[in-house]
Design brief:
Chain A has 6 helices and 8 strands. Chain A is an alpha+beta fold. The termini of chain A are far apart. Chain C is built from 8 helices and 2 strands; from the N terminus they run αααααααββα. Classes of the chains: A alpha+beta (273), B mainly alpha (321), C mainly alpha (209). The interface between A and B is small, with 9 and 14 residues.
């Protein structure tokens, strides 16, 4: 019995001592760490938006958007913080966009991609491909963004995530309007449209007769064949069956499926004009 | 040997078959494949093969500190097989490093011939695929230019039929069979591979079970799960057998005596396993081709397969479980 | 040289070569294989592990007569964990770049067998001064192994030294060199370690160490 008490006391004492030491060190280092991270973010903001005065944070779903203002209260740009699904885990990155909607900076905050392979996403030569692009650009793998072979998953992940985020920025903050497609008002004819898939653009032709979509054909794509069969011809069939675009794209190839839907929408949006 | 009487432990069966004679037979079997590679891809293919074989033999001789460069011929076989799984015109240093890695990491560190766990040529390929993926994967494959020996085939590159559905549909089954299609040096021509395989089978160096199990499984899985994109399901199965490295792997690499099981049942399991892994990678993985990793993975479990498939001795009694 | 000095010297040098924690004892494989992509990271990891090893060695040696043998392992682990956490926080505050590079491997120093091994085998039985020299020696030996392996992997796998920071990285073979990426990857770590062990064993045999 005495033994047990003695052993427990020793362990407790060691525990208390170590807890005490950790508390002291934590107290010293915590403010430094927080300040450093804040400072790094501010430095990044300063480098993308020189002379900015203040920013306002807005959160839309999982993305954070900091609206950057100059001294007169004019919008200088937007810095987003988003997460892309990389090969080894989450890639946290900032996207800096100026007031016209052009990308001025891409900053990878944290990632765990393979050193020497997936970490090309942090190199300037990869990132600069995005600079100057806006929501008017395709920002699509193998189209205007070169994918690094050997690091396909990491680079495609960033590309697709940037496209999504800049789309959100365009719609929420830059007044980008999306054309509402009303199938019944589309004149008869065959229309072509394209939209990004996972690995490159997907080009479709859509045939409309009597206010109804009667045929959808994929003309070009660069998706992996074994995945693409999960989306095609299933998704076109669903669209034709339902006569609207709000179909379930959760397939084995979700991004390809969304690409087909968007390409069809693009074709008909062109026809509406 | 100058002694008249040699006393040794069993086995006492004598055979005129030696490592050297087996290796010579394999080299003969590889001749139609090599010839086809040169016919299709020209002088660059020949150069790649020469560099690879020379490096393999020199490294082996240097490692063993032997003057006899040809030795038992196994290094030449490894070097030639390694060249067969390269694109038509890779940089010369890549061939040298890969062939040297085949011999050193693939074979000699385990104790030399007979002791290696993995197929040396495939180890060499795994090393270069991981190191210089840009040179041996993606759109680096040159379409063949038959009978144009001096042509620079590497000027044009494309994707293999396995990697790109568009390429696949553009290739006829006949061309796949003859080998008039982009791919590794030795993998394109099923015709030449079958000729060489028949020779090996005739000489008794390979068993039907490994290639049979391998190719059969690939065909079945291709037909059942391939999506039938190549003119229907059965044709898709056939496409998966003829495209890529299945024929080369099944006939020449999976059948490597050292790294495959010795029991008949084990050989069948080994072949089927190779086929399953290959098709898993092709259909559901992110790589277009899976022969290399399939055979390497099955090599790793060869001892386990052997252990569980020991046939019952004649006259033996079934063990009660 | 007095008898005491030579004893300290022996404690010190033993861990560097003759009983090198990596090349001879094959301990601490996890950080060894995990962080040796670049020399800088390997060196940082070695230093961090050495700091923890020396600090906990001193404490354990000081307390060796007060810790009952039945609970010594939990006590050791608690002491190591404390110092690891301290190092972790200090690195995050003052060496953020190294902290990012080492990632999960700093917290994992807790489970580093090199440290627990030295505590159990040496510090818990020997006086403070000798424990100190033993810990420094083993720490240097561990760092040496990390740096050696990292050098092989960085030079062959990236073609640089002093990377990955582009400002300090020196490209050894010019811009056209295509590094052998295998050695930058985890499987390459195993292959490089195996080859390095072979070379070290060969040299040790030849020089009779």
């Amino acid at each position: 019995m005495r033994d047990i008490i003695r052993l427990s006391l020793t362990l407790a004492l060691v525990g208390i001592l170590s807890a005490g030491l950790l508390t002291v060190v934590h107290g010293i280092t915590e403010p430094i760490i927080a300040e450093r991270q804040e400072e790094e973010y501010r430095q990044a903001l300063e480098s993308y938006f020189p002379g900015f005065a203040s920013f306002e944070t807005e959160e839309i779903e999982d993305d954070r958007f900091d609206l950057i203002y100059d001294g007169d209260g004019n919008l200088k740009g937007i810095m987003s913080t988003s997460v892309a699904m990389g090969y080894e885990g989450d890639i946290v990155y900032n996207l800096a966009v100026d007031a016209e909607g052009n990308i001025v900076g891409l900053r990878v905050v944290a990632h765990s991609e393979t050193p020497g392979i997936g970490d090309v996403i942090t190199t300037e030569s990869f990132k600069e491909q995005f600079y100057g692009k806006s929501f008017d650009d395709p920002i699509t793998a193998n189209e205007d963004i070169d994918i690094v072979s050997g690091a396909t998953v990491s680079t495609v992940a960033i590309t697709n995530s940037v496209r999504r985020v800049i789309g959100v920025i365009g719609e929420e903050f830059m007044g980008l309007e999306t054309i509402e497609v009303d199938i019944t008002r589309v004149p008869d004819g065959v229309y072509e449209g394209s939209a990004p898939g996972l690995m490159g653009p997907i080009v479709v032709s859509v045939e409309v007769r009597g206010g109804e979509i009667v045929d959808i054909e994929v003309l070009e794509h660069e998706e992996t064949p074994t995945y693409f069969i999960e989306a095609y011809p299933l998704i076109p069939d669903l669209i034709i069956e339902n006569q609207h675009f709000d179909v379930d794209t959760k397939t084995g190839a979700t991004v390809s499926a969304e690409g087909i839907v968007n390409a069809v929408e693009d074709a008909l949006a062109g026809a509406m004009e | 040997m100058d002694k008249k009487l040699v006393v040794s432990s069993s086995p006492h069966i004598r055979s005129i078959e030696s490592v050297q004679s087996v290796m010579t037979d394999v080299l003969i079997a590889l001749f139609p494949v090599a010839l086809m590679a040169v016919l299709l891809f020209g002088y660059q293919a020949l150069l790649t093969m020469v560099i690879s074989v020379a490096t393999a033999m020199l490294v082996e001789a240097a490692w063993l500190r032997k003057r006899d460069i040809f030795g038992d011929g196994s290094a030449a076989v490894t070097g030639l097989l390694f060249a067969m799984i390269l694109p038509p015109a890779p940089p010369w240093w890549l061939v040298v490093v890969g062939a040297a890695a085949s011999i050193i990491i693939g074979k000699q560190v385990f104790g030399g011939i007979g002791y290696n766990i993995f197929n040396p040529a495939l180890v060499g390929r795994a090393v270069i695929v991981m190191s210089w993926g840009g040179h041996v994967a993606g759109r680096v494959w040159s379409p063949p230019q038959p009978f144009a020996f001096g042509a620079d085939v590497s000027a044009v590159t494309t994707a293999t039929p396995l990697a790109d559905q568009g390429e696949a549909l553009a290739v006829s089954l006949t061309n796949l069979f003859i080998g008039n299609v982009a791919g590794c040096l030795g993998e394109t021509s099923a015709l030449a591979l079958l000729l060489g395989g028949a020779w090996l089978y005739y000489k008794g160096h390979i068993d039907w079970r490994i290639p049979g199990g391998y190719i059969g499984t690939v065909f079945l899985m291709g037909a059942l799960f391939g999506g039938g994109f190549y003119n229907g399901h059965l044709m898709t199965g056939l496409f998966h057998v003829l495209a890529g490295g299945v024929m080369l792997g099944a006939l020449y690499m999976a059948t490597d005596m050292v790294t495959s099981p010795v029991t008949p049942k084990g050989k069948l399991i080994f072949g089927i396993g190779c086929g399953l892994i290959t098709m898993m990678i092709r259909l559901y993985g992110s790589l277009p081709e899976g022969v290399t990793y399939a055979i390497l993975l099955m090599n790793a479990i060869t001892p386990i397969i052997d252990n569980y498939t020991v046939p019952r001795q004649f006259g033996g009694v079934k063990k009660n479980a | 040289m007095s008898k005491e000095t030579s004893l300290y010297l022996k404690d010190f040098t033993r861990g560097i070569l003759k009983e090198n924690p990596v090349f001879v004892a094959l301990l601490g494989m996890c950080p060894l294989l995990g962080v040796t992509g670049f020399i800088v990271n390997g060196f940082g990891m070695g230093m961090a592990a050495m700091a923890v090893l020396v600090a906990s060695s001193l404490v354990v040696s000081l307390l060796r007569n007060y810790i009952p043998p039945q609970v010594r392992i939990p006590c050791f682990i608690a002491i190591i964990a404390t110092f690891v956490t301290v190092i972790d926080m200090v690195l995050q505050a003052f060496q953020p770049v190294l902290y990012e590079a080492l990632g999960v491997f700093v917290p994992l120093i807790v489970a580093n067998c090199v440290i627990l091994g030295r505590l159990e085998a040496f510090s818990s039985k020997k006086p403070v001064a000798r424990s100190f020299f033993d810990a420094v020696g083993a720490g240097i030996g561990f760092t040496l192994a990390l740096v050696l392996l990292a050098a092989v992997r960085e030079i062959v796998g990236h073609g640089t030294i002093l990377g990955p920071d582009p400002e300090s990285a020196i490209h050894l073979f010019g811009p056209n060199f295509e590094p052998m990426a295998l050695f930058a990857l985890p499987p390459g770590a195993f292959i490089a370690l195996g080859l390095l062990l072979a070379v070290v064993n060969m040299l040790m045999k030849r020089f009779n160490i």
